[in-house]
Protein 1
Amino acid sequence: MSNIIKQLSIFVNNEPGRLAHISAVLKECGINMRAFNLAESTEFGILRTIVDNPDTAFEKLREKGIIVKKTDVIGVYLQDTPGALFQAADVLGKASINIEYGYAYTYKDKAIFFIRVDNPEKAVDVIGKAGIRLVSESEI
Amino acid sequence: MYWNPKIECMPVEEMKQLQYEELKSLITKLYETNQFYHDRMESKGVKPEDIKCLEDISKLPFMFKQDLRDNYPTKMFTVPNNQIVRYHVSSGTTGKPTLVGYTENDLGYWTEALARSLTSAGVGPEDTLQVCYGYGLFTGGLGLHYGGEKVGATVLPASTGNSERQIELMMDLGVTAIACTPSYFIHLIDVAKKMGVDFRKDTKVRVAFLGAEPWSESMKKKIEDATGIETFDIYGTSEQAGPMFTDCECHNGIHIPSDIMYVEVIDPETEEVLAPGERGELVVTMLKKEAFPLVRYRIKDMTTILTDPCPCGRTSPRIARITGRADDMLIIRGINVFPSQIEYTLMQIPEVGDQYMIYVTREGALDNLKIQVEIKPDAFSDNMEDMLKLRHKIESALKKYLNIAVTVELKAPGELPRFEGKAKRVIDNRVI
């Protein structure tokens, strides 16, 4: 059971209708987004999303001519209490692991923090040792 | 007021004889001593003895910018290196720039042409001339500088940039004449306004020599209405020497001193010489240049020759305001930019795909160059910082090559327009 999750990163032009276009392609391909985040510059954006079945989704998007890349991220379960984010971030910081970006997903009492780190294997190891629960690939 | 009344007001027929003599000796010398000109004339089957009158110039072959590029750096030069006293460099179309060499006499005639022009605009020893053209490889700064000194004016070599300081100096030193690009002058007007400076009340600027980029009658009117300054259109490219020629106080075309440059206008398609008054491509022959002669050079500017007498008394022909280009060269903030240079630079960058678009806009007074490029799928990174670095890398490469700041936008493959016929990658939205 792997705790490293494959995220899809998609290049999106920052123009009216471009996100709609990408979403339409995702829909057409029957891809279900579990969580997503959009980082933008002036003229383009990077859509990062956690989907069920990333390998199939990746192939389908590529066939449609969309620029897509698979990126390893990890998902950390956070307790819905003050200080939960600090605990996870602190563990990574002490292990000198840099967080490039992250985004959260909350549903009812569940909160998951998806993060991109410079060393995912080491991150999985230290977070596990600190007793914080990680999302496994099969849970997506 | 004339700088050189004998030449400037010489009867046309007498001048034609002088021009013929100059042309004949130039062609004879080139045919005998320069491989390039020799071969070019041979290939057209023309010999110096075929030139029997001034009109026979139409028998001579053309020269092109490509010739200058093919012979970079000094193969075009017709004097030994120890006679070259200065170089100027302008951007070429791809890869190689254009290098121009000058003998002492070449600099002398360049300055002479400017002295006649400045005098025709009423500039003399009582004036202070602020030169806000770039000093350096570009011909504008040094050209106007020596021209101004020649007529006895006090020259302020302000060069470009630092606009607030330019305006302070203009006021403090009682500047009466200014030389710069029309777009920079409009910028100076805006800056002055912000500083609370009124050109009419707070400065003594009387005349402005504007050029090195295309501008229109409506822009002239706008500038003159805003400042009360009389503007002159200045023309000349580095191949000719630099900025050299202007209109006179009658403002009906740019006077072309006949003893220095012979002008023709041709139909760019048929290459036939057109009559005065007909619009076409300007072809120039420099009659006095020593280091780097030009014979029937296709300068690619579109204009009309005017030969009706000018009330100023000068007998030289005039050319109308340059109204366009016979090629795709863009002039952006006074700098020549060829789309082929942009393409050449982009294609050196491995992350860049095949498609790009060039947009030119004018924001306020300043030209802006924006280039959209499609990136290759492999160049995409999930890391925003990497993407911004890639954008910066492309911007830096273009800036280094074109000498002007460029805004780059990254696009996904397939996003930019595809062209079935002739690609139209340049969108120039400037209203001039």
Protein 2
Amino acid sequence: MRHDAHVLIVGGGGTGAALAHDLSLRGLGVTLVERGELTSGTTGRHHGLLHSGGRYAVNDRESAVECIEENRILRRICPGTFELNDGLFVAVEEEDLEYVDAFVDGCEACGIPAQRLTRDEALRLEPNLNPAIKLAVRVPDGTIDAMRLPLRFFATARRNGAVIRPYTEVRDLLVHDGLVSGAVLLDHVTGKEGEVRADIVVNATGPWSERVAAMAGVDVPIRPSPGVLLALRGRMCNMVLNRLHKSGDGDIIVPQRGLSVVGTSSWVVEDPDDLTVPEDHVERMYAEGSKLVPAVRSADRRAAWSAARPLIGSKGADTGRELSRTFKTFDHKETDGVEGFVTITGGKATTLRGMAELCADVICRKLDIDEPCRTRETVLLPHSAYYAAAAA
Amino acid sequence: MSTTDTRTLRVYRFKRGDGAEHFDEFEVPVGPRMSILDALRWIQLHRDPSLALRHSCLHASCGTCGVQVDGREELACVSAVRDHGETITVEPLANLPILTDLVVDVGEFFARFPEHPIIRASEADGYVRLEDCIECGLCLSACPVAATSRHYVGPAALVAAQRLLEEPRGADREDVLAWADRPEAAWGCHLGFECARACPAEAIPAERIMALRRELAR
Amino acid sequence: MSAAPGPVRHKGRGPAVSGWVAPRGRALGGRSFALHRITGIALVIYLYVHLGVLSMLLIGESAWGDFLSVVTAKGFLAFDVVLIFGLLFHALNGIRVALVGSGYLVRHQRALFWVATAIGTPLLVYAAIHVFGGA
């Protein structure tokens, strides 16, 4: 079923991928452009946590519920792309124990299965844990392959007719009289410029959202908020290990193949392209991570890098942690009087499908198209199918 | 903190618009922990935004940033600039068609794999774990047999086949054996062992290829 | 992705077979692979030359005598030693390749190379002494 509508998605991260998939399933024409390799922005760089929502169960229940719902859906539609060994929230110090009840209650209220474990039970599951731990709570965390999961969305979208163009940069948007009608593109494969027209242009560029929105003459309240991540050689745990406390730096260890990823920290920048990796933050990862798993202290550094989260909120925040982590779709006709332009932003890797559903609903409403979302039940193609689907 | 230390990067360039292959040289300021990928991205940001690169995870997990640095296969994100000399040559991986600059045609790489969809979670060790192979293509680039044979499936594809025999997850054993029992598959390996040396993960191509052959010989 | 496939970088310079012997970035495995090919091709060429030379016997005794004086010169004897090296390397490495290629001692492929070297070196020295000594 095809609709006579063409949507141009700017940004080839998880959000763009899921949106291209959702819209093409609804029968709309889709072109997606990404200036680099797919997922080369923030999406590819995250630590790979398949969120149970536990981290938000106390202070941000909206996020927590989004997480656990999407967690379940992803397991259904992308089998085989995860390490599904659950996760532990571990009480390491005495103060952590004060947090336990609120944590378990919060999980229950959000529908997140949470199981209390004694110190011995936890150590049996994860022998590398700090022997001084007090207790742990088990939740359905997992590890995502940060690049290959979105690639499955791209593969399915491509098979369903979406045109995916990496190495294609948006130089400018075509704006006239308060209407966005397309974009000027620079193709880095050929080195040539061109134009593409669309009924709606979607800004799905994460921390670069402000930059693209400015091309349409509008503003979005996004603060690029980077954090440092540290990959250590050696698989030090099979379950995701979290510190049982209010959010802090270095309080998660995510296993990934033969590596253990410790994260993260938080600060705010203006330019999401020019990210540094402050060594004191890396040192903090070692220090906090070794509270959970002492072997972290002496582990070999495979890599240390920074990834910029797109956080929504009013400007003027300092560290970025107090901004909300929910996601939003901005229809710029409503917010700024500019037609044909929508920004989708915020969120986490785990909620990519849910973000896309919300945005696709807005887009279909704008285009007067009546199509239900089909992404909750559609099993995705394997990631390698993306390359086989060329010229489909 | 400003650094006066710089390196010269000689970077391979190719755009389909003009079709001319050449090398560009860039002076890049070098910090203590800078990776080759950091240097390439610095060039993109400050000198030439048209430089096309592949990268995603920045920590040797996605396998997209494979390049040849001074003729040796490496993942750019974990290759330290300081481990190389004053002038560093960066080229795309060998034995695969080039799309543009340092980007190779990954479709050609995946086309060599056995037909079964590559399921990527293993339960062999009692817990669930993603496969070691990160599909980076360094092994195919390093392989001396692949240098002359376009049809040799290459080490990564053979590793995938051997893993399907070890842990089928729905694959048909006879199909996989038939796929492997060809001169351009398992018998195409002539023991150069460069694949095992290049592999940045723990996929150990050479050993798995020999294990595959033992299976075929049974 | 696009219509025509792009250029392909390969490891050597010039023809694709130079990729077999390209030294940059190679280790023991790759270098012994290269040497195995070189010695294999060289031995085949030598075989034809050798047979061609033997056919000189058909011409007569004096032609054979001229030939003998060339091949017993010191310079030529050195070539004989190189030939013996090629034979020994190809044979011993060939055993290594046959073993490892059938799945035996794969993890010890480097150690096998050094064992082959340990066997081959005294044999080569012995042969060299007799080649030069017997002239």
Protein 3
Amino acid sequence: MELCDWSAYDLGRLLRKREMSAREIVESVLERIEERETLIHAYITVTRDMALEQADRADRLLAGGGDIPPLTGIPIAIKDLLCTKGIKTTCASKILADYVPPYNATVVDRLFRDGAILIGKTNMDEFAMGSSTENSARGSTRNPVDPERVPGGSSGGSAAAVAAGETIAAIGSDTGGSIRQPASFCGIVGMKPTYGRVSRYGLIAYASSLDQVGPLCRSVEDCALLLNSISGHDRKDSTSVDMPRPDFLQALDKDLTGVRIGLPGEYFVEGMDSAVKEKVMEAVSFLERNGALVREVSLPHTPYAVSTYYLIATAEASSNLARYDGVKYGTRPHDDFEDIIAMYHEARSEGFGREVQRRIMLGTYVLSAGYYDAYYVKAQKSRTLIREDFSRAFEDVDCLVTPVSPCLPFKLGEKVAEPLQMYLVDIYTVSANLAGVPAMSINCGTVDSLPVGLQIIGKPFDEETLIRVAHAYQRLSEGSTVE
Amino acid sequence: MDFETIICFEVHAELGTRTKLFCDCPIDYDALPNHQICPVCTGQPGALPVLNKRAVEYCVRAGLALNCAINPHARFARKNYFYPDLPKGYQISQYEEPLCEDGYLVIPGDDAHPYPVGIKRIHLEEDAGKLVHASKSFESADYSLVDFNRSGIPLIEIVSDHTRNPVRSLQEARTYLEKMRQILRYIGVSDCIMEKGQFRCDVNISLRPRGGHDFGNRTEIKNMSSFKFVLEALEYEIRRQAEILESGGRISQETRLFDETKRATISMRGKEDAPDYRYFPEPDLVELDIDSVFIEAIRQDMPELPDQRVKRFISAYGISQNEASLLTRDRQTAEYFEKCVPHCRSCRKLSTWIAKDLFRLLKEKSLPIDECIISPRDFGRLMDLIDRGEITDGIARVVLEEMFETGNPPELIIKEKKLQPLQEADVIGSLVDQVMTGNPETVARVREGNHEPVNFLIGQIMRKTQGRADPKKVREILQDKLGIS
């Protein structure tokens, strides 16, 4: 195993013992990028020089001893929709191809504060709209497990980079499953924290009421480590919640005894790959054998989740993406327009990809006079019902366990022609965003060598239970017969 | 045909907060273009708004001053439209659940009775940037530049209600706007300087046959940059609509622009082209809970409003309605008056001298009253000097002018300029003699019983003393010498 394949948690310990240097780690990651990037294409920008510079600074800090910030010397890749000052942030869109933010996202500032090294900006579906990273203006990313297949999306670049050893850990964003589903497809760990747990300041918005930033990593320990760094109140984000942040590493030590796990009946119905279902049920039995109490619960409004999601997300997106019009933001194709309307037309028609245009149009329709009540207002009501489903279920259980995706990682191009099929890939993940609850994806084995993800959904602001269950599962199943 | 005019206003006032509505950028009207900006007010991708509490307070203050109900739950909404001065492609405004609703503003109606004009709502929103065109208009310019200094400055929009006592005439429109501006200045939420764009308004107008109940089609008029143009546009539009209706035509519901050079309103867009703003709740801001403690604190802090102050001035100082209105035209004037009161015996003299003579001096120099260097104590002493008959009104006017220029106390000016009143009977007597000798025909006429020219003779004598002589004494001596009484 090379340095670039280690976990952040283990590397942190070795760095502190001075058994290796941050420079060695970064060089190992950069070497892996050299080897694999042409095939995988996980990155839009690799910040090689900056990473080496940051590594040297980390090494000087480590040499000095004293107070060492928790992520010192750890290379992190960041999805290309989190603003990085002075470094291109493109959202994998032609319209932002040249956008260089004048400021850092709060999450980026916090990672830097804690000593993390930025290794690069990762590929994604354009403006986070997609489930396969095929909607990128910069070309698709491939799944390191099987390069014929997609890595999932929209944080496909982040997931693939972690899985390929092209970074140690990564940051993504999740609006309807965009962290959990690629984590599942690439066989790694991903978490969407509670809405309001992590600041959205500097996260280029897709759907503001659903977007949440979270980690993609190799282990649950790394997930806790990163979550410690990025979460907490930020006065620059009015929707971030002002409450003390627990030390998520503490949750790692607890076992499964007495944890009440709910299985929502609505998540185990037709339309799911039976091999996926089998793997998930095996994991559930494993948790039960190790002390968890498993019972069935009901989330009756689940069938409305996907349509509710696509109404709300597209409505918000249509407004959030209005600023890319060629005036202050968005590439202007040329300077010779008949009038301002012609400029808007051309800048937006040429700058946005097909899926983004489709969602802007859907969302514009949803908010239009005469349709607003029938679509937007109704979707909000449905969202409330879905949220109430979760509150009720959590009266009896501590967390829910479900599949992440109804299918295994599919082949590149397989679903491109069928947007609705692609939308259904999100069927198990969108509800957590609508309800604002935290949810996590961990690997629970493989089918035909392709990874299957297990989703754990928790109560609002109870990421600790997710970390506890996920870590216990990972620790206990290592070397056991789950594979 | 006899028509009733129904006029509704959408008044926009920029709030005088220190910083913008959703970011920490300072508000400075004199700053260089794009020097008061940050990622938030320029809509950088990923930047998020954080609400300025002071702006909420100001909006509530305006709501209370205009007798509105304050919503315990208020929400912000996005108003979506494309325009180059709008960096996000939407304006953060309020739609459902604005901060204030259902108020009124009392103006003197055309029938001379107090008339409470209904206020439908007051909401808080952000201003857009400012376009600077390379030539006169957007259409003809080779290029246009955007200055974002104004982007994100808090605005309140005050919408009057067409169903509850709408404004009915030009005169009421003028009074409504003046009163509105006066109140907003009084409560300190906005300077309302129209030339700086701090006070703007759009107007809705419709006509209907007098006594009718149904509303006629209305037109909305935009783009009026001064009070004068608002009234001109209204006048033009009322006449235009009346002419159409009288000739049996129909008013088409549309938005019109006021053309300052043509002095006319011209059609901008019809009803069918009205934009769909696709309002929806702003997901980047949380709902606003306005608790009663917050409202009460603002209520406690509310200064006396102009109408209350007029009433108090009349009863406390025994001055006329007219002078009370003049003295309360703005807070600073009223405060100056009240600071002078303890230093003089006659409030009525004081009010007249401020409202007439001081106002004239201020107007000549176009100075605001806060820049008047006469101390209230000196002003009061000048009043007492007049009151005790120590100086004449004419001398006092000279002294006041000198006080206004130098800030010196009245006694010093009188002494230095040798303006002490002329009281000595022999001096006055010889002056009277001089004037009588110089005007023998007039004197003869008086003696014949025509007393009319007496005042002319007194004026001649006063002129010789540069107004220093005591006019009462002059009259006495003159009448005595003329042998009349």
Protein 4
Amino acid sequence: MITSLRGRETRPQTVHRPGAKRHETPASDWVPTTCRMCLVGCGVLVNAKDGKVLNVIGNPDSPVNRGRICAKGKSGIMNHYNPNRVMRPLKRTTAEKGIGVDPKWQEISWEEAIDTVASKMRKICAEDPRKLYLQTWGASQEFTTWLGVLRPAVGTPYVQTGVSPNCGKTVHSIQFLMAGGFHQEPDLAHCRYLIDCGTQMGVATREGFNHQVPDCAQARERGMKFVVVDPIGNNAASKADEWLPIRPGTDAAFGLGILNVLLNEAKIYDAEYLKHFTNATYLTGSTGKFARDPATGKPFVFDQSDGLIKVFDDPGVKEPMLEGEAEVRGQKVKPAFELIKARAAEYPAERVEEITSIPAKTLKRIAREFGEAACIGATVLIDGVEVPYRPVCLDWDRGPQGHKHAWHHTWALAMVNVVLGAVNVVGSIHSTDTASNFPVKKWPEAGQDGILMSSGSTHRGGGHFTAFPGRTPARPERWDLFELFPVAAHTRTLVPEVYKDPGKWGIDHKIEMVIHSPGNQVMGGWGDVRAVIDWYKSIDLVVGFAVEINETHELDDIVLPMCTYLEEGTFDDSSVYPFPAVAGEGVGVCQIQQKVVEPAEGIRTIGAVMTEIYQRAGILDQVYDALNHVKGMTPANALKPGECYSMDEVSDRIAKSRFGNDYGWEWFKENGVLVWPRTVDERYPGRFVNARIALYLENFIDRGEELKAVLDEMGLSWDLADYEPIPEWRPCDSFERMRRGEIDAIGVNYKLPYAYGGFGHANPWINELCNKLPRSYGVLINPRLARKKGIKNGDSIWLESPVKKVQAVAHVTECVHPEVVGIAGNAGHWAKGKPLSIGKGVNFNGLLPYGIEMVDVISSALDQCAPLKVYRA
Amino acid sequence: MAIHCDPAVTETVAPGSAKPSRLNVKVVFMGEIQGWAGRRELELELPPESTVHALAQRLLSLCGSGFAQHALTKEGAFQPHVAVFVNGVQIGRLDGTKTVLTEGQVKLMLLPMYEGG
């Protein structure tokens, strides 16, 4: 199967700009590894001499970035040589915790540090593993491996794999529903019309952006139309054919408006796809539930070829009705598609303009252009195989997802692709992880009602909770109230909320220990920082792995120094985005992270530290057993009870289990990147997966009713209107406040391509970039708002939300919606261990009101519209 | 829900006619699933050629409402978030829920969940 291998013979100088001096260093002096300055995991080549890192460049062998590297990646050297780096384990010597409180750190030995953590872990595992909370994201995939494994090993449900509890709230769930994969990206090699809603995909952000940037540029050269829908005229908008400034929190209305034009006005939709690859034909009664066969429980369809009602998977069904009306046992029924059309009809362009501020004429034109570009019915030959050609993509991610009604915003947008049959086919939106034949077989299955059921990335050691069919709600037993969100993927958002009054929710255990990565969770998206800090303060033992002391570490009881990515090796094929390949690309990829220089004196690898903790806590054999399953170890390579392994040995066993004995750790260290050809069905799995998409979410009705019963028992009254099968637009709190004139603007966050979340501002090269590009640390204000408030460009202003007031520098620009303040990145640091970043920019998340009333009742996404009063300082 | 588990509970089910051709399967519950099932493991005799889906149906009747609520769909199939390993191999690499069981061990666990970044 492995027929294409590339490696060290590659010439790293090919990455240099034309005309620039070519690199003269021999290829053998460059070590292939994976950058860990953000989540993407680009392939890089590192030049080191005498134990010193001299340069980092992109690895042309890696399909993830094809030799390109961004400013963040380049600045990895400065993280490695960080003068504020933690070099010894530290112990807090004062009980008081909070912003500005000196922890009075005392250096301690590794022996004492490990023993303290291991003792607590032994106690917790003996008593109740739910007392352990793990935060695993950031700076090293070793956290995912060595901390994440505790979920299957000892049974704590609290493995928070995102720094931000808001990340991935709906995008992954919808990918499982829509395509059976994990993440999404456009097939830019073939796309001809791209609408980018609330993300800067292809320009400045998202997974694999170092290949998406040139791909998007080439697509634009080829004639792809690029439309950006975003409150901010950001990097993406600057490259777009059209920028449509949208009022925050109105994406569902935009999506439904597009659907209305397509389904009801232009009549452009892929009827054959909808009939055979979705549940759009399932007959639906007046209650919104499917009419089902009493004997089998299967939904009915109406076969127009003979006028008979049949179960959906009856082999005799020839022409299932998509539009019209039928009768089942005397009751009028309609295909679910009719209900979707009817909902869309409630969103004529003129109403959408009122809600979104996007002109009706523009919406109608864009929708028609998009539909016509979809080439419904067209096919194309790829390697001799005929596959559908739908060169249109409506992409979305973090923007529409960060709202009170996140599910409905994002599902409405996703449906635009589905009705055009533009999912996982040539030119369309793609799931990055739908199906594979190699190195591990994974094809999604049809489950209940013939619906696609997939837990995304299970073939590579990770799972996911899915929205279909959902779980049975129950009284909560967990700190994140997971049981009250039966279709959510994760609900970590709720933890600080429960801390306010655990008894109210019936929680019977305390979180006694947190172990966290350096991802800086305090600044990571819970909103009101005070609530987050209060929760951290309540925990007996907070343990943090650190390169430098950030805001979260200031609350730690024990700090454990860690390697930079240049000092640590790991075979972790689950970590490279997009795994196992770029959308539609002909090769799959696996690349490793390897040690380039020895760790600084006294620094140990995460794997070595955690292994010793597990050994002393008496759970190492359990960890090995779980790891053997998670990593898919073959019997010959399985970790054996009672043994101790170096991290290189562990990597070798994982690599050989995955790719065979010829491709062990030594092979990967030498070659860095392994690529292999992918078959057409792997590349374009859309019509090769034998399952239907749940376009109509009937299961939401049942889960909503069950949830209401539980809430009634608990004496709680939540608005559960969102538990309905079809998207609807509902306003968020900030939208209503604006309408009532209570606030001046809505604060909206946008990303910078050279900073990553709350990470990087302390790096001198990143800081220099941010200083030179003034919007990085300033805020964007439209001239209309500026005039109204008497603000001039460069003025110092106050931004006042209900939970925090911050000072910022105003940058008056047309590149922001008139009702919005644009806030970049996540700066505004205060930790003394990051002196370069203190007091610069705005900590956006800290402006967000936090509480259960602010989260999406479906996904638990926190509303990320900051209601702001704006005035001169 | 009690998260504690008694020491390994062994339950032999429905020996019935004790045909020699019956399939012996040990089901091991790992991590949180121990709490849902209220036990660490379970020994079963199943008809030959039983599939993973048939095992789920059997566990529905044996492991109580907590297990059903968390691990199974309303139809009695394994929820997508439950990772099923047959003799060490995840069923996704075999034939999914149609995988035919063989003599030996089935492990049920929740893998580390990918949530975002």
